[in-house]
Amino acid sequence: MRIYLSEDYKAMSRRAANIISAQVITKPDSVLGLATGGTPVGAYQQLVEWYKKGDLSFAEIKTVNLDEYLGLSPHHEQSYRYFMQVNLFDHIDIKPENTHVLNGLAKDPQAECAAYNQLIRDLGGIDLQLLGMGHNGHIAFNEPGDDFGLETHVVTLTDRTIDANTRFFESRDEVPRHALSMGIKNIMQARRILIVVSGEEKAETVCKAFAGPVTKDVPASVLQLHPDVTLVGDRAALSKLVEAGVPVCG
Ligand code: PGA
Protein backbone atom coordinates (compact mmCIF):
# COMPACT_ATOMS: atom_id res chain seq x y z
CA MET A 1 0.00 0.00 0.00
CA ARG A 2 1.18 3.51 -0.81
CA ILE A 3 0.15 6.28 1.55
CA TYR A 4 0.38 9.91 0.44
CA LEU A 5 0.04 12.72 2.96
CA SER A 6 -1.16 16.05 1.60
CA GLU A 7 -1.23 19.22 3.68
CA ASP A 8 -4.91 19.98 3.29
CA TYR A 9 -8.10 19.03 1.49
CA LYS A 10 -7.24 20.93 -1.68
CA ALA A 11 -3.83 19.31 -2.00
CA MET A 12 -5.33 15.91 -1.23
CA SER A 13 -7.97 16.40 -3.93
CA ARG A 14 -5.35 17.42 -6.48
CA ARG A 15 -3.24 14.37 -5.68
CA ALA A 16 -6.25 12.04 -6.01
CA ALA A 17 -7.20 13.69 -9.31
CA ASN A 18 -3.65 13.20 -10.53
CA ILE A 19 -3.85 9.48 -9.89
CA ILE A 20 -7.25 9.23 -11.65
CA SER A 21 -6.04 11.28 -14.61
CA ALA A 22 -2.92 9.10 -14.94
CA GLN A 23 -5.26 6.10 -15.23
CA VAL A 24 -7.40 7.90 -17.84
CA ILE A 25 -4.37 8.96 -19.89
CA THR A 26 -2.59 5.61 -19.83
CA LYS A 27 -5.78 3.61 -20.54
CA PRO A 28 -8.35 5.90 -22.20
CA ASP A 29 -11.03 3.16 -22.19
CA SER A 30 -10.63 2.41 -18.49
CA VAL A 31 -13.50 1.32 -16.29
CA LEU A 32 -13.52 3.69 -13.33
CA GLY A 33 -15.35 2.79 -10.14
CA LEU A 34 -16.63 6.06 -8.68
CA ALA A 35 -17.75 7.21 -5.25
CA THR A 36 -20.05 9.87 -3.84
CA GLY A 37 -19.85 11.71 -0.50
CA GLY A 38 -18.13 14.92 0.49
CA THR A 39 -14.54 13.73 0.23
CA PRO A 40 -14.20 13.09 -3.54
CA VAL A 41 -15.88 16.35 -4.59
CA GLY A 42 -12.60 18.29 -4.75
CA ALA A 43 -10.99 15.60 -6.90
CA TYR A 44 -13.94 15.72 -9.31
CA GLN A 45 -13.66 19.53 -9.51
CA GLN A 46 -9.99 19.20 -10.37
CA LEU A 47 -10.71 16.62 -13.10
CA VAL A 48 -13.36 18.94 -14.60
CA GLU A 49 -10.83 21.78 -14.58
CA TRP A 50 -8.22 19.69 -16.41
CA TYR A 51 -10.87 18.51 -18.88
CA LYS A 52 -11.87 22.12 -19.62
CA LYS A 53 -8.24 23.02 -20.19
CA GLY A 54 -8.06 20.23 -22.77
CA ASP A 55 -5.66 18.07 -20.76
CA LEU A 56 -8.01 15.14 -20.29
CA SER A 57 -10.74 13.30 -22.21
CA PHE A 58 -13.29 10.85 -20.86
CA ALA A 59 -14.74 10.03 -24.29
CA GLU A 60 -14.00 6.32 -24.01
CA ILE A 61 -14.15 5.99 -20.22
CA LYS A 62 -16.80 3.82 -18.58
CA THR A 63 -17.90 4.25 -14.99
CA VAL A 64 -19.68 2.20 -12.36
CA ASN A 65 -20.72 3.84 -9.11
CA LEU A 66 -20.52 2.13 -5.76
CA ASP A 67 -24.02 2.62 -4.44
CA GLU A 68 -27.42 4.30 -4.54
CA TYR A 69 -30.22 4.96 -2.07
CA LEU A 70 -33.19 2.65 -2.46
CA GLY A 71 -36.37 4.60 -3.15
CA LEU A 72 -34.80 7.76 -4.61
CA SER A 73 -35.30 8.61 -8.27
CA PRO A 74 -32.25 9.54 -10.35
CA HIS A 75 -33.64 13.11 -10.39
CA HIS A 76 -33.86 13.42 -6.61
CA GLU A 77 -31.25 15.93 -5.49
CA GLN A 78 -29.86 13.53 -2.91
CA SER A 79 -29.66 10.52 -5.21
CA TYR A 80 -26.16 9.46 -6.09
CA ARG A 81 -26.99 9.55 -9.82
CA TYR A 82 -27.87 13.23 -9.41
CA PHE A 83 -24.67 13.82 -7.41
CA MET A 84 -22.56 12.31 -10.18
CA GLN A 85 -24.27 14.37 -12.87
CA VAL A 86 -23.83 17.62 -10.95
CA ASN A 87 -20.30 17.01 -9.69
CA LEU A 88 -18.76 15.33 -12.72
CA PHE A 89 -20.68 13.85 -15.64
CA ASP A 90 -22.46 17.03 -16.78
CA HIS A 91 -19.13 18.84 -17.12
CA ILE A 92 -17.01 16.34 -19.07
CA ASP A 93 -17.18 14.51 -22.40
CA ILE A 94 -18.18 11.12 -20.97
CA LYS A 95 -20.93 9.35 -22.95
CA PRO A 96 -24.09 9.10 -20.83
CA GLU A 97 -24.55 5.46 -21.81
CA ASN A 98 -21.11 4.69 -20.40
CA THR A 99 -22.04 5.89 -16.90
CA HIS A 100 -23.63 3.33 -14.63
CA VAL A 101 -25.32 3.94 -11.29
CA LEU A 102 -27.58 1.42 -9.55
CA ASN A 103 -31.29 2.18 -10.06
CA GLY A 104 -32.78 3.31 -6.75
CA LEU A 105 -36.28 2.79 -8.14
CA ALA A 106 -35.71 -0.81 -9.25
CA LYS A 107 -38.92 -2.82 -8.79
CA ASP A 108 -36.87 -5.89 -7.97
CA PRO A 109 -33.81 -4.71 -6.00
CA GLN A 110 -32.28 -8.20 -5.83
CA ALA A 111 -32.47 -8.53 -9.62
CA GLU A 112 -30.96 -5.04 -9.98
CA CYS A 113 -28.02 -6.12 -7.80
CA ALA A 114 -27.48 -9.33 -9.78
CA ALA A 115 -27.61 -7.39 -13.06
CA TYR A 116 -25.04 -4.91 -11.71
CA ASN A 117 -22.61 -7.71 -10.82
CA GLN A 118 -23.03 -9.03 -14.35
CA LEU A 119 -22.52 -5.55 -15.81
CA ILE A 120 -19.20 -5.18 -13.97
CA ARG A 121 -18.11 -8.57 -15.32
CA ASP A 122 -19.26 -7.66 -18.86
CA LEU A 123 -17.23 -4.44 -18.70
CA GLY A 124 -14.18 -6.54 -17.93
CA GLY A 125 -13.90 -5.53 -14.28
CA ILE A 126 -12.92 -2.24 -12.66
CA ASP A 127 -9.51 -0.77 -13.49
CA LEU A 128 -9.43 1.86 -10.74
CA GLN A 129 -11.90 2.05 -7.88
CA LEU A 130 -12.17 5.36 -6.02
CA LEU A 131 -13.37 5.09 -2.42
CA GLY A 132 -14.23 7.34 0.49
CA MET A 133 -14.49 5.98 4.01
CA GLY A 134 -17.19 6.59 6.60
CA HIS A 135 -16.46 7.53 10.21
CA ASN A 136 -17.15 3.95 11.22
CA GLY A 137 -14.82 2.56 8.55
CA HIS A 138 -17.54 1.70 6.06
CA ILE A 139 -16.70 1.62 2.36
CA ALA A 140 -19.62 2.13 0.02
CA PHE A 141 -22.51 1.01 2.26
CA ASN A 142 -20.61 -1.97 3.64
CA GLU A 143 -21.08 -1.41 7.34
CA PRO A 144 -19.17 -2.88 10.30
CA GLY A 145 -19.90 -6.58 10.65
CA ASP A 146 -20.90 -7.09 7.02
CA ASP A 147 -19.60 -10.16 5.23
CA PHE A 148 -16.47 -9.55 3.15
CA GLY A 149 -17.74 -12.11 0.60
CA LEU A 150 -20.77 -10.11 -0.55
CA GLU A 151 -21.25 -8.76 -4.06
CA THR A 152 -23.79 -6.03 -4.86
CA HIS A 153 -26.62 -6.30 -2.34
CA VAL A 154 -29.46 -4.52 -0.55
CA VAL A 155 -28.27 -2.79 2.62
CA THR A 156 -30.05 -1.57 5.74
CA LEU A 157 -28.31 1.64 6.79
CA THR A 158 -26.96 1.86 10.34
CA ASP A 159 -28.13 4.62 12.69
CA ARG A 160 -24.66 6.21 12.49
CA THR A 161 -24.74 6.37 8.70
CA ILE A 162 -28.29 7.77 8.76
CA ASP A 163 -27.07 10.40 11.27
CA ALA A 164 -24.05 11.26 9.11
CA ASN A 165 -26.19 11.62 5.99
CA THR A 166 -28.96 13.64 7.63
CA ARG A 167 -27.01 16.82 6.83
CA PHE A 168 -27.91 16.35 3.17
CA PHE A 169 -31.69 16.03 3.78
CA GLU A 170 -34.33 18.33 5.27
CA SER A 171 -34.74 16.02 8.24
CA ARG A 172 -33.53 12.65 9.56
CA ASP A 173 -36.89 11.10 8.62
CA GLU A 174 -36.21 11.78 4.95
CA VAL A 175 -32.96 9.81 4.84
CA PRO A 176 -33.67 6.50 3.09
CA ARG A 177 -33.27 3.45 5.34
CA HIS A 178 -32.03 1.15 2.60
CA ALA A 179 -29.54 1.31 -0.23
CA LEU A 180 -28.09 -0.81 -3.01
CA SER A 181 -24.36 -1.22 -2.71
CA MET A 182 -21.45 -2.99 -4.28
CA GLY A 183 -20.07 -5.49 -1.80
CA ILE A 184 -16.54 -5.82 -0.49
CA LYS A 185 -15.99 -8.62 -3.00
CA ASN A 186 -16.67 -6.31 -5.97
CA ILE A 187 -14.37 -3.67 -4.50
CA MET A 188 -11.56 -6.14 -3.80
CA GLN A 189 -11.77 -7.39 -7.40
CA ALA A 190 -10.87 -3.95 -8.78
CA ARG A 191 -7.36 -3.93 -10.22
CA ARG A 192 -6.37 -0.76 -8.37
CA ILE A 193 -7.95 1.07 -5.45
CA LEU A 194 -7.64 4.74 -4.53
CA ILE A 195 -9.07 5.74 -1.15
CA VAL A 196 -9.38 9.37 -0.10
CA VAL A 197 -9.76 10.55 3.50
CA SER A 198 -9.96 14.01 4.99
CA GLY A 199 -10.43 15.53 8.43
CA GLU A 200 -9.36 14.87 11.99
CA GLU A 201 -12.62 13.17 12.90
CA LYS A 202 -11.61 10.22 10.71
CA ALA A 203 -8.03 9.94 12.05
CA GLU A 204 -8.80 7.26 14.63
CA THR A 205 -10.65 5.06 12.14
CA VAL A 206 -7.98 5.58 9.47
CA CYS A 207 -5.42 4.33 11.98
CA LYS A 208 -7.54 1.30 12.88
CA ALA A 209 -8.19 0.50 9.22
CA PHE A 210 -4.61 0.72 7.97
CA ALA A 211 -2.45 -0.01 11.03
CA GLY A 212 -4.75 -2.38 12.92
CA PRO A 213 -5.91 -5.93 12.31
CA VAL A 214 -8.07 -6.81 9.31
CA THR A 215 -11.52 -7.12 10.84
CA LYS A 216 -15.14 -6.93 9.79
CA ASP A 217 -15.58 -4.36 12.58
CA VAL A 218 -13.67 -1.88 10.38
CA PRO A 219 -14.65 -2.72 6.78
CA ALA A 220 -11.89 -0.56 5.21
CA SER A 221 -9.27 -2.74 6.94
CA VAL A 222 -9.90 -5.38 4.27
CA LEU A 223 -8.02 -3.12 1.85
CA GLN A 224 -4.78 -4.20 3.54
CA LEU A 225 -5.27 -7.50 1.69
CA HIS A 226 -5.47 -5.86 -1.75
CA PRO A 227 -2.24 -5.82 -3.81
CA ASP A 228 -2.62 -2.29 -5.25
CA VAL A 229 -4.07 0.29 -2.89
CA THR A 230 -3.21 3.97 -2.69
CA LEU A 231 -4.40 5.93 0.33
CA VAL A 232 -4.43 9.71 -0.13
CA GLY A 233 -5.23 11.78 2.94
CA ASP A 234 -4.81 15.21 4.38
CA ARG A 235 -2.53 15.74 7.39
CA ALA A 236 -5.46 15.73 9.83
CA ALA A 237 -6.90 12.41 8.64
CA LEU A 238 -3.50 10.70 8.64
CA SER A 239 -2.33 12.18 11.96
CA LYS A 240 -2.90 9.07 14.07
CA LEU A 241 -1.39 6.81 11.40
CA VAL A 242 1.75 8.96 11.45
CA GLU A 243 1.80 8.89 15.25
CA ALA A 244 1.63 5.10 15.08
CA GLY A 245 4.85 5.16 13.03
CA VAL A 246 3.38 4.08 9.69
CA PRO A 247 5.59 5.42 6.87
CA VAL A 248 3.91 7.91 4.52
CA CYS A 249 5.09 9.73 1.39
CA GLY A 250 4.89 13.52 1.38
P1 PGA B 1 -17.80 11.49 3.19
O1 PGA B 1 -18.42 10.03 3.16
O2 PGA B 1 -16.80 11.54 2.08
O3 PGA B 1 -18.97 12.39 2.98
O4 PGA B 1 -17.16 11.64 4.55
C1 PGA B 1 -17.58 8.94 3.04
C2 PGA B 1 -18.39 7.68 3.07
O5 PGA B 1 -19.36 7.61 3.84
O6 PGA B 1 -18.05 6.75 2.34
Question: Helices, strands, pairings?
Answer:
Layout: E1 2-6, H1 9-26, E2 31-34, H2 41-52, E3 62-65, E4 67-69, H3 80-87, E5 99-100, H4 109-122, E6 128-131, E7 153-156, H5 159-165, E8 178-181, H6 184-188, E9 192-197, H7 203-211, E10 229-234, H8 235-243
Parallel strand pairs: 1-10, 2-3, 2-6, 3-5, 6-9, 9-10
Antiparallel strand pairs: 4-8, 7-8
Helix pairs in contact: 1-2, 7-8
Domain Glucosamine/galactosamine-6-phosphate isomerase: 11-224
Organism: Candidatus Flavonifractor intestinipullorum
Pfam family, one: Glucosamine_iso
Keywords:
single chain, about 250 residues, alpha/beta, 7-stranded parallel beta sheet, 3-stranded antiparallel beta sheet, 8 helices, about 35% helix, binds 2-phosphoglycolic acid
